[in-house]
Amino acid sequence: MRAAWVLLPALAALSAYYVYVPLPGAVSDPWKLMLLDATFRAVQQTCHLIHYLRLGHHLIVLNYLICTFDKLKDVSSEDIKITDAVFDGVEVRVFEPAAKGDESLKRSVVYIHGGGWALASARTSLYNNLCRIMAESLNAVVVSVEYRLVPKVRFPEQYHDALHATKHFLQPHVLAEYSVDPSRIAISGDSAGGNLAAAVCQQLSKEEDLTVRPKLQALIYPVLQAFDFNTPSYQQNMNMPVLPRYVMVNYWIDYFNGNYDLAHELLVNNHTALNVGRALSFRARLNWTSLLPPSFTKNYKPVVQTTGTAAIVEQLPALLDARAVPLLADDATLSRQPPTYMLTCENDVLRDDGAMYAKRLERAGVPVTLDHFHDCFHGCMIFTVWPTDFSAGVQTRNSYIKWLDENL
């Protein structure tokens, strides 16, 4: 009995030590975020152990666990018809509001989910609920793209899936089938899905034979560049739940089918040092000292290596490919983009990716709405259902849907 009295406080102290992470004072629901982060870290560590023991790829195991848990929390609606379809070889889930007697054509959103190009699904409740609520609130047809994931496929296959599904949907006869107004279509996505949405919009803007083009793009804390892992937000939020800097770097490595041994060199920007000739022409497009406001740059300093490792770009050429890194696109491409909504969170390593893209689009003459949340964190918009219900999720989701409702 005496041993139990000693053991229980010790276990409680160890649990508290594992759960607790220092957070900025403005973060909403801090203890709930700590618990979410601790759970995710524990699951990730278990998956890495399984990978180490060669029992399965850690990302496949992690995604299986996420999807198994997530499916238990689905919220249904009788007002929305949900069907699975295949658009040009790509699986999609379509959300259609109930038809009304004298109703004209509906507006529509093509949505691309996040998850580091490796996790989540259009079919799991986190995204199923988001898209259902969008369809219901906007009275819009929502097409959620089920692109293939890492490690089964790597870049550029996720991009190709998103592009093919979107182009298929934009065909006039397909829009007619779903009673969609061709002049009122938005392309949207969060995190890695925001990356794919931005890349798809850029490509669509270059295709002269398209008869239907998106009216808007709406990007939710998108990941847009792998050029500089020391922007102010990467420095400020390097250990921030639920996306620490090293995790984002590993997602990039997985996406490009690279070696984790490169992680440290990427973290210190050796891949874009001044002696890496292929990177020099892109440097001005990611000069955050001129693209970010003082409230973002604070007192952070650029990390620019004089001598780096040019071989990294040779091994991972997609690091400088605008299809993977939309922030590297030239000004001519940016000038052709549709009016843009950009949602960013202060407590997110990707905050500056979104803010820099918004500024470059604005300079190229594109109307931009930058919707910045000081108390929110990466991924928050999908966390609206118990037990992962955050006030930040409801706040960001409502603001996003409100902008779509007013502009689409």
UniProtKB/TrEMBL annotation:
Keywords: Cell membrane, Endoplasmic reticulum, Glycoprotein, Hydrolase, Lipid degradation, Lipid metabolism, Membrane, Microsome, Signal-anchor, Transmembrane, Transmembrane helix. The keyword Cell wall biogenesis/degradation does not apply. GO terms for cellular component: plasma membrane. It is found in: Cell membrane; Microsome. It catalyses: a cholesterol ester + H2O = cholesterol + a fatty acid + H(+); 1-O-hexadecyl-2-acetyl-sn-glycerol + H2O = 1-O-hexadecyl-sn-glycerol + acetate + H(+); a 1-O-alkyl-2-acetyl-sn-glycerol + H2O = a 1-O-alkyl-sn-glycerol + acetate + H(+); cholesteryl (9Z-octadecenoate) + H2O = cholesterol + (9Z)-octadecenoate + H(+). It is a single-pass type II membrane protein. It comes from the Eukaryota. Its EC number is 3.1.1.71. GO terms for biological process: lipid catabolic process. Belongs to the 'GDXG' lipolytic enzyme family. This is Neutral cholesterol ester hydrolase 1. It comes from Falcunculus frontatus (Eastern shriketit).
